[in-house]
């Protein structure tokens, strides 16, 4: 494919990245997001970037889309009416949940658990029960299934979930229920999706499996409507290229796959940025990075080692545990649109999590916003130019100052000091997320570089790195649209898993190999369905393992042939991974919990030629000066045009570096150097 386009829908802007692999060229675009109908912003961005590149949209070869439709539906409670069918005695599964309450001591007094997306009156239990060993305690009654399905259809459900006890190991009853339900629905003339837990999440832990499958049903009709409407809108442009959707683990899947398993897309946006960051860092020669993505509404933090993002098998989305592979991202409600206010109780300054969003946006956008935001604070401090997006967007400095005046009066300080306080507070908030991703996991941030992206990331990365000691700060040339770049370099990917509980010393290795072989077959068939050429296919294996009776698992990956897998090798791999993560291992029995086959279809990567480093003098790239708050007073600082910065050039702080999609702030006592890949590398001045 020669022309691939990535589209990332954020809370404030929709970012677009277009790559021409034949001519080694790329183009960037940012357009305001359209929360009411995300497809409008997607189409506008595609049309705009094609016009910028001077090509017809019909020439595009692939459209790769990361969407927040699933996430927003969960956060806003705007999913579908779901009916749940479960086993005898298990009707309260969603309300019992996992009996977890937050600390500290007595924290449960104030804890308000989330309301299940399926109310009790739409949960039906069958007179059916299977033990974990596969013994049928209560046989499945077909007439009982028919009756319960008819009853739920009578309640106008838009989707059905089937989650029976121990179906992760013994799915026969769920498969029978699905067949019976299909017959009833056909007879009634009702066309609604049916999700099986043995298909969506075939793993043990009853509540997590049930809620993951329920959420899949909850999001199914929403994603079907959105993606179908987007495909129609693309054809009207016209865009004839195939549409692929980004998964939470950073891979790509077809529209049909996303409609059938929408829960796999719940965190697709953040995963794209981490993918792009890993690609940029590996190309530039940095092995260990902390990714920092600051947008208009939130900031996302992740860790990549050896060019590979950390993947987790359980995340929380809208307070619900989701058992689905996702890049491990820490998110905090701190972005350019985060609103600053003074607490009525303590009189202290707070920033976020409330955000001005895309509408009305920060006060300086001139769209009716009047409350002070982080973007307004940066503008008041002279960290932002008065024009963004190549001059397409003008910022109103006076409006930003007016927004901060009430805040300054409440704090009894001047406007510039108030704006600096807003920036300091939001930096402190984001520093907490960075420490959670590193220090609290036993990682020393001084051994990492901080790779910053997102529209607002470059304004805060230098200050955060100075606190963490994570130098250099890496700011890629595509910083403002790196998530969209991450979609373009993403591989087609899926994961097939099966519960397989037993201690390594006691399991039958032949049975383990057979299970992996069956999963490999499903992975290979899926890659065939996705149209991945045979030479670009790969299947890798992951086993979730733990010390016996531990409450959590560690994913252990191996690339070898499943038919030659040995148990001694598995033990060694587990001990090595445990020691890498925690610094020790134990002489204790080891259990396997789940086995997985990861299907990977390799795609073309962005291939650009590096530049040749030249002289350090960057005066030719200076576009002018602007007043900025330095040491308690306004002083003129240089402003540089990043498009004119060549490899080898150095910029001394304090300085502002502007580009189409983002702005970078270099603090006093620091230097930014342009590397051969046109990344900005910010380090402490020597």
Structure write-up:
This protein is an alpha+beta fold and 686 residues long. It is built from 16 helices and 37 strands. The strands form ten sheets. Strands 13, 14, 15, 20, 25, 26, 33, 36 and 37 form a nine-stranded mixed beta sheet that branches. The protein has a six-stranded mixed beta sheet with strand order 3-2-1-4-11-12, sandwiched between helices. It is globular. The two termini are 46 Å apart.
Offer a few descriptive terms.
nine-stranded mixed beta sheet, 686 residues, six-stranded mixed beta sheet, alpha+beta
What is the structure about, briefly put?
This protein has 686 residues and is an alpha+beta fold.
Topology (SSEs and partners):
Blueprint: E1 3-9, E2 13-20, E3 25-32, H1 38-53, E4 62-66, H2 69-76, E5 82-86, H3 93-96, E6 123-125, E7 129-130, E8 136-138, H4 142-153, E9 159-163, H5 172-188, E10 194-196, H6 197-200, H7 206-236, E11 242-246, E12 252-254, H8 255-260, H9 268-284, E13 288-294, E14 299-305, E15 308-309, E16 311-312, E17 315-317, E18 320-322, E19 326-327, E20 330-332, E21 338-342, E22 349-355, H10 374-380, E23 387-388, E24 393-394, H11 397-411, H12 415-437, E25 449-453, H13 457-468, E26 473-475, H14 482-488, E27 492-503, H15 509-529, E28 537-547, E29 554-558, H16 567-582, E30 590-601, E31 622-630, E32 633-641, E33 650-652, E34 655-658, E35 663-666, E36 670-674, E37 680-684
Parallel strand pairs: 1-4, 4-11, 5-6, 5-9, 9-10, 13-25, 25-26, 32-34
Antiparallel strand pairs: 1-2, 2-3, 7-8, 11-12, 13-14, 14-15, 14-20, 16-19, 17-18, 21-22, 23-24, 26-37, 27-30, 28-29, 28-30, 31-32, 33-36, 34-35, 36-37
């Amino acid at each position: 494919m020669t022309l691939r386009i990535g589209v990332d829908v954020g809370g404030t802007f929709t970012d677009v990245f277009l790559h021409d692999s034949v001519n080694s060229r790329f183009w960037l675009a940012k357009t305001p997001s359209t929360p009411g109908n995300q497809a409008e912003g997607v189409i506008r961005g595609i049309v705009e970037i094609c016009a910028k590149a001077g090509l017809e949209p019909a020439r595009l070869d692939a459209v790769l889309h990361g969407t927040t439709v699933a996430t927003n539906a969960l956060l806003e409670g705007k999913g579908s009416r779901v009916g749940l069918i479960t086993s005898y005695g298990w009707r309260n599964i969603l309300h019992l949940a996992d009996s977890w309450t937050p600390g500290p001591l007595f924290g449960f007094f104030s804890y308000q658990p989330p309301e299940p997306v399926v109310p009790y009156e739409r949960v039906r239990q069958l007179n059916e029960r299977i033990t974990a060993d596969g013994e049928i305690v209560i046989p499945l009654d077909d007439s009982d299934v028919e009756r319960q399905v008819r009853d739920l259809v009578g309640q106008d459900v838009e989707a059905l979930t089937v989650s029976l006890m121990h179906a992760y190991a013994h799915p026969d009853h769920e498969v029978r229920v699905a067949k019976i339900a299909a017959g009833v629905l056909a007879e009634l003339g009702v066309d609604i999706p049916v999700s099986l837990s043995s298909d969506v999440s075939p793993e043990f832990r009853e509540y997590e499996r049930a809620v993951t499958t329920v959420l899949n049903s909850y999001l199914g009709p929403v994603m079907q409507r959105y993606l179908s409407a987007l495909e129609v809108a693309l054809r009207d442009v016209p865009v004839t290229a195939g549409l692929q959707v980004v998964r939470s683990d950073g891979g790509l899947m077809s529209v049909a796959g996303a409609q059938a398993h929408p829960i796999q897309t719940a965190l697709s946006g953040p995963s794209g940025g981490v993918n792009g960051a890993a690609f940029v860092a590996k190309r530039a020669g940095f092995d260990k990075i902390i990714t920092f993505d600051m947008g208009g509404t939130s900031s996302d933090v992740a860790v990549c080692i050896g060019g590979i993002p950390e993947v987790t098998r359980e995340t929380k989305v809208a307070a619900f545990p989701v058992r689905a592979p996702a890049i491990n991202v820490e998110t905090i409600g701190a972005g350019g649109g985060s609103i600053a206010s003074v607490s009525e109780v303590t009189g202290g300054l707070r920033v976020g999590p409330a955000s001005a969003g895309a509408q009305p946006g920060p006060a300086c956008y001139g769209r009716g916003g009047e409350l002070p935001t982080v973007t307004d604070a940066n503008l008041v401090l002279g960290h932002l130019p008065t024009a963004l997006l190549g001059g397409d967007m003008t910022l109103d400095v006076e409006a930003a100052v007016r927004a901060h005046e009430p805040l300054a009066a409440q704090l009894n300080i001047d406007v510039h000091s108030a704006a600096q306080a807003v920036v300091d507070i939001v930096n402190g908030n984001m520093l907490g997320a960075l420490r959670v991703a590193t220090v609290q996991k036993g990682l020393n941030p001084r051994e990492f570089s901080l790779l910053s992206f997102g529209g607002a990331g470059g304004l805060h990365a230098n200050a955060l790195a100075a606190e963490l000691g994570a130098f250099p700060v890496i700011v890629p040339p595509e910083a403002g649209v790196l998530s969209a770049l991450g979609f373009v370099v993403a591989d087609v990917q899926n994961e097939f898993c099966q519960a397989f509980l037993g201690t390594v010393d006691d399991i039958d290795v032949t049975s383990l190999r057979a299970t992996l072989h069956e999963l490999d077959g499903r992975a290979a068939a899926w890659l065939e369905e996705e149209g991945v050429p045979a030479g670009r296919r790969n299947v890798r294996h992951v086993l979730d393992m733990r010390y016996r009776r531990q409450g959590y698992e560690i994913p252990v990956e191996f690339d070898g042939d499943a038919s030659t897998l040995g148990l001694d090798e598995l033990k060694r791999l587990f001990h090595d991974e445990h020691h890498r993560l925690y610094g020790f291992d134990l002489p204790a029995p080891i259990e396997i919990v789940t086995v997985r086959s990861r299907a990977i279809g390799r795609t073309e990567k962005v291939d650009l030629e590096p530049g040749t480093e030249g002289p350090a003098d960057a005066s030719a790239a200076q576009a002018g000066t602007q007043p900025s708050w330095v040491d308690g007073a306004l002083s003129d600082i240089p402003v540089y045009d990043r498009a004119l910065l060549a490899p080898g050039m150095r910029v001394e702080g304090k300085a502002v570096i502007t580009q189409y999609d983002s702005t970078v702030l270099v603090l006093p006592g620091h230097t930014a150097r342009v590397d051969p890949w046109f990344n900005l590398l910010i380090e402490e001045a020597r």
